[in-house]
Design a protein that fits this description.
4 domains, 400 residues, 32% helix, alpha+beta, globular, D-amino Acid Aminotransferase, Chain A, domain 1
Length: 400
């Protein structure tokens, strides 16, 4: 086994973290995950991944826990991209700018930076109390979106059409500060980028308002080339304004009547199995690209395929405990299915949080064109069933 180590500070929980470890091993390195709770990541035991239990919110403890022979430090968790970058900088290893990462993660500061750079965007203001949020919303004009200044995965993000809804949304997040911004109307996309340049535009599927839970993705987005170019330019301009031109970034935008407008800039690789879909459709391994960049090795983003991909999530309809999961083998056997993921295993307690945490599982499928990829993903996802205790009985995208 190699003595050279890729340190991964925590992980995400929806699949990509496992791929980071696999990529490190494929490159001849030993992945070591630093985490407060290894039980959060079942793949550590399943794949025999070395890990160190440490308080990852304690910078001094993290530095003391670093293994020998570290070649690179990174993270698949947005919460730990900045701390990982700081550690890598101290060790003289490749890293993104920690200050730029922090700027992007502070949604109010990000909005201010984009405005200072002359980029168009919604009206916005930070509110540090519920009453302030109500006043700000009235000044901006309805509808507005209320979201935590620091957050991820659509958690706590809500569309509000009047002051009563703003008060309720802000109260749920209190005492955390919130960002109130005018609603951007139009279809939503993400632009997956590397070193500040667009790689692919992804179309999003969102659940019902007033929340913004992602229920699926299609890529490359089935839109005219001019629309893809405009979205890509807007994403690149935002990254340049924030100083984020190193490694992967996930830029979310809406294509409004006035043109593309940035929703958020995430200084990390996309979650939600988008990297796996990109690999299946285009043959571009963005996970390996992030690992290579952290190691200071060359990155190859040359497309090797020209297919389409679709991702579909199965969400819990309500609270309960998972007692069984059915249909996995059937879904895996559907031609064109690349990956089936079970995120809620038997024994898992689930409830509706109106965020990515509502996901029970997913399907990633590829096809010769967007129609084929979508049909395959929808059909395979419809075969999956989670049996739940309580009044819901089951969860799935297909008919009962």
């Amino acid at each position: 086994m190699s003595t050279e180590v890729l340190v991964l500070l925590e992980s995400n929980t929806t699949g990509t973290g496992r791929l980071f470890c696999a990529s490190a091993r494929a490159r001849g390195l030993r992945p070591v995950v630093l985490t407060r709770d290894p039980a959060r990541y079942p793949y550590l035991a399943e794949d025999d991944i070395d890990h160190v239990v440490v308080d990852t919110n304690d910078a001094v403890a993290v530095r003391a826990a670093l293994p020998d022979h570290v070649r690179g430090v990174t993270s698949s968790s947005e919460l730990f991209i900045g701390p990982a970058a700081s550690i890598a900088r101290e060790l003289g290893l490749p890293h993104p700018d920690p200050e730029a990462v922090a700027l992007a993660r502070d949604k109010a500061a990000m909005r201010a930076a984009l405005r200072s750079a002359g980029l168009p965007g919604p009206g916005f203001a930070q509110a540090d109390s519920v009453d302030a949020a109500v006043r700000v919303a009235a000044d901006i004009g309805f509808p507005v979106v209320v979201k935590p200044v620091h957050g991820t995965g659509s958690a706590g993000v809500r569309l509000c059409t009047d002051q009563i809804e703003v008060k309720a949304a802000a109260a749920e997040l209190d005492p955390r500060p919130v960002l109130v911004e005018s609603y951007l109307d139009g279809p939503e996309y993400s632009v997956e980028t590397f070193d500040g340049a667009p790689v692919v535009v992804v179309a999003k599927h969102l659940g019902p308002r007033p929340h913004f839970v992602e229920t699926g993705h299609d890529l490359p987005a089935p839109v005219p080339a001019a629309t893809r170019s405009a979205l890509g330019r807007a994403a690149a301009e935002a990254l340049s304004a924030l100083g984020l031109r190193w490694g992967a970034a996930h830029v979310e935008l809406r294509d409004t009547a006035a043109g593309p407008r940035v929703v958020e800039v995430n200084p990390r690789l996309a979650g939600g199995m988008i990297p796996a879909a990109i690999s299946g459709a285009l043959g571009i391994d963005l996970v390996d690209a992030v690992v290579a960049r952290a190691l200071g090795e060359p990155v190859d983003l040359t497309p090797r395929r020209a297919l389409s991909a679709a991702i579909r999530f199965v969400l819990t309809p309500g609270p309960g405990t998972v007692t069984a999961v059915d249909g996995v083998e059937e879904a895996e056997g559907v031609p064109g299915v690349e990956r089936v993921g079970v995120l809620a295993q038997p024994g898992t307690e689930v409830r509706v949080r109106n965020s990515f945490q509502d996901r029970l599982g997913y399907v990633v499928a590829v096809g010769a064109d967007p129609t084929e990829a979508r049909a395959t993903a929808d059909g395979a996802a419809g075969l999956l069933r989670w049996r739940l205790t309580g009044p819901w009985g089951f969860a799935g995208n297909g008919a009962q």
